[in-house]
Amino acid sequence: MDYATLATPPVCVADFCLIPIGTPTASVSNEVAAVQRLMKASGMSYSMHSAGTTVEGPWDDVMRLIGQAHTLVHQIGVLRIQSDIRIGTRTDKKQHFSEKVSKVESILAADGSADQKVIVSDPEPDGKERIAKVGEETNSLTEQGL
C-alpha cells in the first residue's frame, strides 16, 4: 500500500477546545470570542458550547480552521496553547452534528420523560432502529456501545 497517497476522510465532525496557557487572568472569554468570529467567517457549520466548539465539514478544511484558531489566539498575545480535539467520521451515511442531538431529544420526547435513558443502535438490516432500555440484555456490540 502506498501510504503517501492515502486520502483523508471526505467529511468529519470535530469537537475541539483550545486551552490558552499563561493568560494574565483565569478568564479566556476574549480568546473564545475571537475564535467564534473566525468560525463565523469560515462559513462552515459550527456550534459553540460551554467546553469548546463543534465544527463540521471537509476534513482538510476543518483541520485548517482549527490550525487558524491556534494562529489567531497566538496573534492576540497567547504564547502557548494546548488543544483537545475529538474527531468523528462516518462512511455509511451523511449526518449533520445537530441531527445526533435531535435524534436523542426525539427519543426522550417519545418517552414522555427525560429521566428514562435509552440506547439506540445503528439500523438493523431491515432499516428499522433497535431501541433498548438501559439495563436490558443486548447481544449486539453496537447496542453495548462497543
UniProtKB/TrEMBL annotation:
<dbReference type="InterPro" id="IPR002767">
    <property type="entry name" value="Thiamine_BP"/>
</dbReference>
<feature type="compositionally biased region" description="Polar residues">
    <location>
        <begin position="137"/>
        <end position="146"/>
    </location>
</feature>
<protein>
    <submittedName>
        <fullName>Extracellular mutant 15</fullName>
    </submittedName>
</protein>
<dbReference type="Pfam" id="PF01910">
    <property type="entry name" value="Thiamine_BP"/>
</dbReference>
<feature type="domain" description="Thiamine-binding protein">
    <location>
        <begin position="14"/>
        <end position="105"/>
    </location>
</feature>
<comment type="similarity">
    <text>Belongs to the UPF0045 family.</text>
</comment>
<feature type="compositionally biased region" description="Basic and acidic residues">
    <location>
        <begin position="125"/>
        <end position="136"/>
    </location>
</feature>
<dbReference type="GO" id="GO:0005829">
    <property type="term" value="C:cytosol"/>
</dbReference>
<dbReference type="InterPro" id="IPR029756">
    <property type="entry name" value="MTH1187/YkoF-like"/>
</dbReference>
<feature type="region of interest" description="Disordered">
    <location>
        <begin position="115"/>
        <end position="146"/>
    </location>
</feature>
<dbReference type="InterPro" id="IPR051614">
    <property type="entry name" value="UPF0045_domain"/>
</dbReference>
